[in-house]
UniProtKB/TrEMBL annotation:
Top-rank taxon: Eukaryota
Protein localization: Mitochondrion inner membrane
GO molecular function, one term: guanine nucleotide transmembrane transporter activity
One cellular component term from this protein's GO annotations in UniProt: mitochondrial inner membrane
Residues annotated as transmembrane: 309-328
Protein name: Mitochondrial carrier
Organism: Tuber aestivum
Primary subcellular site in the record, as a coarse category: mitochondrion
Length: 340
């Protein structure tokens, strides 16, 4: 008989890290990712925002470097750092929220509903899907429909999931700096917030729709990879095993979320006074560019943004593991008691 592809460990068997370890690990991941990969992110955003087909090297050069396409190489490189301040606020907060928050929801689900994941998906697979579900902070549709999870649990997880949308204005301003700096017209942050108000949340629905499958695939892909590697305690993974798992999670996330990411980017890079709805963008893309337009920038994302997400996820999970000896009962740790 061939060995099982996944372990036989229960979804309730989860080793917990301290709150400090989660905070420092996720924060370090955001800072490291920003320092190394902001230029890569700028290139990917500019490629996704380009509406035509790139037919030549000079055209590609213009799309990527814009007004600096004929500048010396040094100025070209530094032209890839627009919106760095907005990016710092967004990226570090996002990584702390996502990478640091996922373990809290994972613990909640493990304590209260681990057995239900085991029954629904089997041991090993149930544990990996629980990690994926916690990564998205929403409940798997099948479990919701069949009533495996209680209504109050759905509410708690869904409310936590809204949190990342709060950071959306920073992402919008970062993308506009990267792809359409003319939209600012010399205005500073506070003036833009005053002028635009909730317009900075334009595209929030598409952002949530993109984050849902992307986050699920990120944490789920990583968890399944660790299962394939024979790990019963995911925190015991070596740096090499974490790296392999991060590649699996990041690749899955990018492929799954690619179409919605293109729509989100095009919504967010338009001038403030000339917005366009997501459905109109979808219609125009199908009409003028064809279905393949929804995967524009996917290859550069896998080659450039992929390593960025791999790097960030790898750093975050590895640092958390290094800091596990910190006390679990630290005040920053969420106290979760199982119901009797």
């Amino acid at each position: 008989m061939s060995p099982a592809l996944v372990s036989n460990t229960s979804a309730r068997d989860v080793k917990r890290e301290s709150g400090i370890a989660r905070l420092l690990g996720s924060g370090s991941a955001g800072i490291a990712e920003l320092a190394v990969f902001h230029p890569v992110d700028t290139i990917a955003k500019r490629l996704m925002s380009n509406h035509g087909k790139i037919a030549s090297g000079p055209q590609l050069n213009t799309v990527i470097f814009k007004d600096y396409s004929t500048a010396p190489i040094g100025r070209k490189f530094f032209s890839l750092f627009p919106g760095l301040g907005y990016a710092a606020g967004y990226k570090v907060s996002q990584r702390v929220y996502k990478f640091g928050g996922q373990p809290f929801v994972r613990d909640f689900l493990s304590i209260h509903h681990g057995e239900k994941f085991d029954r629904a998906f089997g041991k090993g697979s149930g544990k990996a899907i629980l990690h994926a579900t916690a990564g998205r902070f929403v409940v798997i549709l099948a479990l919701f429909v069949h009533g495996h999870l209680r209504a109050e649990t759905n509410t708690v997880i869904s409310l936590i999931g809204i949190g990342e949308i709060i950071l959306l204005p920073l992402d919008v301003l970062k993308i506009k700096r990267q792809t359409n700096p003319e939209a600012f017209r010399g205005r500073g942050l506070f003036k833009i917030v005053s002028d635009e108000g909730f317009g900075l949340y334009r595209g929030w629905g598409w952002t949530a729709a993109r984050n849902a499958p992307g986050s699920f695939a990120l944490f789920g892909g990583s968890a399944f990879a660790k299962e394939m590697l024979g790990l019963t305690d995911y925190n015991a993974a070596t740096w090499g095993q974490n790296f392999i798992a991060s590649i699996a999670g990041a690749s899955s996330s990018l492929v799954v979320s690619a179409p919605l990411d293109v729509i989100k980017t095009r919504i967010q890079n338009r001038n403030f006074e000339n917005p366009e709805s997501g459905f109109r963008i979808v219609s125009n893309m199908v009409k003028h560019e064809g279905p393949t337009a929804f995967f524009k920038g996917l290859t550069p994302k896998l080659l450039m943004t992929g390593p960025k997400l791999v790097f960030s996820f790898w750093i975050g999970t590895s640092i958390v593991y290094l800091l596990i000896p910190l006390r679990w009962d630290h005040p920053l740790t969420l106290s979760i008691q199982p119901k009797h």
